[in-house]
Every structure is written in structure tokens, then in C-alpha cells.
Design brief:
By secondary structure, the protein is of the alpha/beta class. It has helices at about 10-35, 40-50, 80-95, 110-120, 155-175, 195-210, 235-245, 265-275, 300-315, 335-355, 360-370, 370-385, 390-395, 405-410, 415-420, and strands at about 55, 100-105, 125-130, 175-180, 185, 215-220, 230, 250-255, 280-285, 325-330. The chain is built from 15 helices and ten strands. Strands 1-2-3-4-6-8-9-10 form an eight-stranded parallel sheet. Strands 5-7 form a two-stranded antiparallel sheet. The longest helix is centred in the first third of the chain and has 27 residues, at about 10-35. The chain is globular, with a radius of gyration of 22 Å. The model has no long low-confidence stretch (mean pLDDT about 95). It binds alpha-D-psicofuranose and manganese (II) ion. Manganese (II) ion binds near residues 181, 256 and 283.
Length: about 425
């Protein structure tokens, strides 16, 4: 342990005491504001404490673009160091106790060792992610022209087997879901037969589905473009929904916020999937142009709020089977990934609590009367309420930081890791 610096609880508590007066003042003001509406901030603190969002193992390293990757100091060099960083994030924000792994990037030598390592740090494993969008050394068949939808049955077989391997590893480490995203598609009109490609994909997915344990979920990600730029096989939520329905009750649609055409009404997509009983979960991130993988809530916080407005609407309406999984999926090119993941997790909680503040009866009444502006202003009132004090209180009560960013910076964690983890000389590029 001497060579594995952690941000301990005593340090967090001492940092929190520096913020105590400020927080008490903010909470009192917010309490008075909410009391005018007959609301008690306490109940929102409890709700904030219950929200969980998983962090992606691949998000704790510095990301890159297809042009370059500018490595950061003290980056994790293996899955164990990634878990250390995930544990640091969770120690401060307390809403990210689950980690989503990507295989083979995170393939351990021993599943048991990995599981024990995570457990010792208060972490569990969220959805497993398979990777058939890259070739691995020594692989018999290339994914250059697709994987689960490939024209060659042997390539499809290999891609299916990889997913089965992910399920087996997931079972050993306590995961309960598999997320499948394929890069399959085409770059030229005529390159691929759309119908055949989807049939091939479904045939492969049926085999994967059959291996998914009954208490698991199978998440399917749609994505409009990239790396294929003319067409993708699972291009949109409609195709995704069709596939999830074809496969059966364990299959659900996963909405990655960056995977739609610009200006698509994602909150409505979310509502549709809720209504059709197929919303599996999210990969949260934000974007200006495409699948930018920017920090959640950094570009379009109102969109994030509107998505949570749909989620809370489903929660309070007790929609049967509604239980989406929340995950972050981001690429941090110019920030310390730990800082970005912490602030993104906080933004997810913020959107949730703001959505809880929506006067749902007032909204329904305004909708009945066709009062568009009143309906909109009810949403805006919730969205513009600063719930930071509720979020900070929830974190503190769970043992986390009043201000995760300042606490993290004061801890010197990154410098300690830079010392513990000398930079590797490997130059890597790529979206991940
Ligand atoms: C694809 O863009 C994606 O969103 C999928 O979730 C991948 O697994 C992930 O990014 C990692 O690059
Ligand atoms: Mn994703």
C-alpha cells in the first residue's frame, strides 16, 4: 500500500470542514425556496444518495482523436490501476461504485484476483463491453469489413465467440449485463446489402442472446456513423428497437447520447423506448457535432435535464419494468480524466434532482389546458434551481467530498500517481 496512494476519509472530512459554513448557508436558502412550494430538501438529498452511474474503465486514461493522443501524467497502465482511479473517483463523489469493463482491453489473468481487487476498493462491475471493432494480435479473421454482420460466417463465429467470452468473464466477476456495440457498416453506396447485413447481425446476436444468463440484460447500442461513414448496421433507435424486440425480453436498447444525428430529439427517443418497454440504459456524454464524447452536461445541460425529466416521469408513473442502467462513456483529451468523470457524475445527479423538482401536477394541468408557456416555465423553474447544496449534502452523508474537484486537487493524487506510474513509451492514437 505504501506505493498506492489513496485519498483517505480523514483528508476528505478535513476538506469538507472548510466548506461547511458555505454549504449550510446555501442549503438554508435552498430550503426556504423549496418550502415555498411545500417541498422538503431532505427528501431530495435521499433521492440524490440513491442515484448510481457507472464509470467506464476506458475513461480513466487520456483519450485521443484519430490525429493524436496527448498522454497525461500518471495514467493507469493496466486494469488494476484503472480500478484504483475509479475508486478515487467514487471516494469523492460516492455515486460511481460500479465500473464498466471493456474486453479485451481489461482482460485479467485471473477473474478472481480482479474481483477481489475491486471488492477491496468498494467497487462492483457494471455491464461488460465487447470489442469487435478492432483486430487483436493473432486474430484469425479481420473485422475490417464487419464483425457480427460480416459476410463470412467464420468471422461472425469469431465475433460471437468473443461476446460469449465476455459473458463468461462477466459471470465470474459479478457483472449482470453485456453491452454490444459494433462498428459494422459501409463507407460506399453499394458496398453492403443493408438487409443481408442486418440479417447476419441478428443471426449472430441470437447466439449471444441465448448465452445471456436469465438475470442479465443484453444492451444494444445504435450509432449513426463512425467508423463507417455511409451506413451503419445498427444506425438508429428504430433499428435498435426492432433488434431488441426480435431477440427477446433480456434485450434492451442503450442510448449513447452522442450516437444520433445532430438535433435529434433524444428525450423523445428516450420516452418512446420507455413506452415500448425497451429502454435499457445510457452512455452519458455530451457533444457539439457528432460522437464527441465530451463531458456530460458540458455542452447541452438542458438536454440532459429533459432526458431526466422523461426518466423521472417514468419513475413517478411507476412504468412497469422501468429500471435503466446509467453509465458514462466519454473521452477526455484535454482534462484530467478523473476530474472529468467526477464532474460528469455530478452533472448526472444534478439533472436527476432538478427533474425531481418538476411540478408534475402543474405540468399535467398546463398540458391539459394547452398552456404551452406555463408548461415550459414549469420545466425551466426546475432546471434553473441550483441544487448544488443538495448534491453536496448527499455526497458528504455518503462519506464523499463537498467539492470533489477542489478536494481532489488538494489531495495531490495525480502527482502521486505520476510518481508511482512512470510514463510508458507506447504511443497510441484513437478515439478510445
Ligand atoms: C462507440 O462509439 C462507443 O460509444 C461504444 O460504447 C464503445 O464500446 C465505446 O464507445 C468505446 O470506445
Ligand atoms: Mn457508448
Amino acid at each position: 500500500m505504501a506505493n498506492n496512494f489513496v485519498i483517505d476519509e480523514e483528508f476528505i472530512a478535513s476538506q469538507n470542514s472548510l466548506k461547511a459554513d458555505e454549504l449550510a448557508e446555501d442549503l438554508e436558502y435552498l430550503g426556504r425556496r423549496l418550502a415555498r412550494r411545500g417541498l422538503d430538501p431532505r427528501s431530495f438529498v435521499e433521492r440524490a444518495k440513491s442515484l448510481r452511474v457507472a464509470v467506464p474503465s476506458w475513461g480513466v486514461g487520456t483519450g485521443g482523436t484519430r490525429f493524436a493522443r496527448f498522454a497525461g501524467a500518471g495514467e493507469p497502465r493496466n486494469v488494476y490501476e484503472k480500478l484504483d482511479d475509479c475508486a478515487a473517483i467514487n471516494s469523492l463523489v460516492r455515486s460511481t461504485s460500479a465500473v464498466s469493463l471493456h474486453i479485451p482491453w481489461d482482460k485479467p489473468e485471473s477473474a478472481e484476483t480482479l474481483k477481489n481487487y475491486a471488492t477491496a476498493r468498494g467497487l462492483t462491475f457494471d455491464a461488460m463491453n465487447s470489442n469487435t471493432f478492432q483486430d487483436q494480435p493473432g486474430q484469425a479473421h479481420s473485422y475490417k469489413f464487419g464483425s457480427l454482420s460480416h459476410m463470412d460466417p467464420a468471422t461472425r463465429r469469431q465475433a460471437v465467440d468473443h461476446n460469449l467470452e465476455c459473458i463468461e468473464l462477466g459471470k465470474a466477476i459479478g457483472s449482470k449485463a453485456l453491452t454490444v456495440w459494433v462498428g459494422d457498416g459501409s463507407n460506399f453506396a453499394g458496398q453492403s446489402n443493408f438487409r443481408v447485413a442486418l440479417e447476419n447481425y441478428l443471426g449472430s446476436m441470437r447466439e449471444i442472446y441465448a448465452a445471456v444468463p436469465d438475470d442479465w440484460k443484453l444492451f444494444i447500442e445504435h450509432k449513426m456513423f463512425e467508423p463507417a461513414f455511409y451506413s451503419t448496421v445498427i444506425s438508429d433507435w428504430g433499428t435498435n428497437y426492432y433488434c431488441a424486440r426480435e431477440l427477446g425480453p433480456k434485450a434492451y436498447c442503450l442510448v449513447d447520447l452522442g450516437h444520433h444525428a445532430p438535433n435529434v430529439n433524444i428525450e423523445q427517443v428516450v420516452s418512446r423506448l420507455i413506452q415500448f418497454g425497451k429502454l435499457g440504459g445510457f452512455h452519458f456524454n455530451d457533444s457539439k457535432y457528432g460522437d464527441d464524447d465530451l463531458d456530460t452536461g458540458s455542452v447541452k445541460p438542458f438536454q440532459l435535464f429533459l432526458i431526466f425529466n422523461e426518466l423521472v416521469d417514468a419513475e413517478v408513473s411507476k412504468v412497469p419494468g422501468f429500471d435503466p442502467a446509467y453509465m458514462l462513456d466519454q473521452s477526455h483529451n484535454v482534462t484530467d480524466p478523473i476530474e472529468s468523470l467526477m464532474s460528469s457524475a455530478v452533472e448526472v445527479s444534478r439533472a436527476y434532482v432538478q427533474a425531481l423538482l418538476v411540478d408534475r401536477e402543474g405540468l399535467a394541468e398546463a398540458q391539459r389546458k394547452g398552456d404551452a408557456l406555463l408548461a415550459h416555465s414549469i420545466l425551466k423553474e426546475a432546471f434553473t434551481t441550483d441544487v448544488s447544496a443538495i448534491l453536496a449534502t448527499a455526497r458528504i452523508e455518503l462519506g464523499g467530498a463537498a467539492d470533489p474537484l477542489s478536494c481532489y486537487r488538494a489531495s495531490g493524487y495525480r502527482n502521486e500517481k505520476a510518481r508511482e506510474r512512470p510514463a510508458s513509451s507506447v504511443i497510441s492514437a484513437g478515439i478510445v
